[in-house]
């Protein structure tokens, strides 16, 4: 069995493969490198075969989305650890060693992520994951180094190693046994927040998700869907409701779900005021589809709570990050959760 497989999911990304795959090959001697092609219709397969013959290629017959693509690919890979890596990530010398060290040292660590910096501005954190993820009382995700659209400069303030609540799917090392224990990523989510869902399940075992600032990668971001894409908006709002419906305890859900829906409507209004009617429409479409499929969500919730009745709240922020950001002008992680604060 291979110890570590770095697995890149590709869909029509021939330009990204040429730009970013060389760094992965150069700096990943410890790992098997796999590209799982999600039914590309461009020249991706030709590029891989002709320019990167040392990379293992797994061909999928169609685009199964981020979740479905990874699930099908990882069933074909035997390794102790998987590292799910976006196709638009530039890695650096020694990036794998700190993560492997943490996983090898502590069997209670199920997953780990590195520091995620912006490829466009390498002095700043990148939106998708930054220096490790948390959630608040309503299930809103936020990161060290990024609160909503406010991204911090990297001045070494997050060069530590610590337990977090969720790891970014852009660069995510996980024990293969844990991944398959939960049947991988929830394919209903298709893409976006699927890693938060999996990490929330890990908190139910309970095992740990960690971050290390000793490993650094640079993420281009929005390589498939732009940040203002109506499809991205739809997935984020729909999947956010699915996550809290699936995971929150019954007593919490009674009042937190309506509050979350109300805040989503406020967000839709803000999209309209900013001249983004397509994104406003995506919010309501997300709500419609969530309610349409409520029976399936209820069954998944029941199965999950039956198998794992509770989750560790060690890294859940009991406040509301949306209030901190918009009404208390707390734009940085440390102004919301000061150093040394223990979340429980």
Automatic annotation (TrEMBL):
Boundaries of every Glycosyltransferase 2-like domain copy: 5-179
Q: Name one Pfam family in it.
A: Glycos_transf_2
Q: Does the keyword Transferase apply?
A: yes
Can the keyword Transport be found in this entry's annotation? no
Q: Which UniProt keywords apply?
A: Glycosyltransferase, Transferase
The protein's GO terms of the molecular function aspect are: glycosyltransferase activity
InterPro entries assigned: Glyco_trans_2-like, Nucleotide-diphossugar_trans
List the SUPFAM superfamilies. Nucleotide-diphospho-sugar transferases
Q: Which residues form a coiled coil?
A: none
Q: Which PANTHER family match?
A: GALACTOFURANOSYLTRANSFERASE GLFT2, RHAMNOSYLTRANSFERASE WBBL
Family named by the database record: Belongs to the glycosyltransferase 2 family.
Q: What is this protein called?
A: Glycosyltransferase family 2 protein
Its source organism is Chryseosolibacter histidini
The top of its lineage is: Bacteria, Pseudomonadati, Bacteroidota, Cytophagia, Cytophagales
